[in-house]
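Kindly review this protein for my students:
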Amino acid sequence: MDVYAVYKKTLLLIIAYGGTLASFSLFPSPRGWGLGEFIGALLFSPLQVLAASFCFVAGFLGYSLFVQDLIRLVYQTHINPMVLKERVLFLLVALLSILHLLFTNWLATLPILILASLYGIMDADLNSKGK
């Protein structure tokens, strides 16, 4: 794995973790979770809801790429040992960031993990030789 790939994965993890944490703080917290409260929050602070939704999507898409990497790591037969160590290191750091998010706000982290797992599993192309 070259330096550029390490930089890309580090930046991706920062975007996933930061986007998830930002979505936790940006989503409006109304007194109830009804449709009327959500529509009221959307009407009175639309940019905040839009920014929170964008951060939510960036977070789960970032973590879905780590799910893809985990699936490829499990099902790939021939892996260079040096590349294997770097991939496992990034997966461990991603797992630690997910654990921190679960301890911070587990109720908001669960949808992110579910969507990231589903999208990562669906998008993992195990037949491609170039990855």
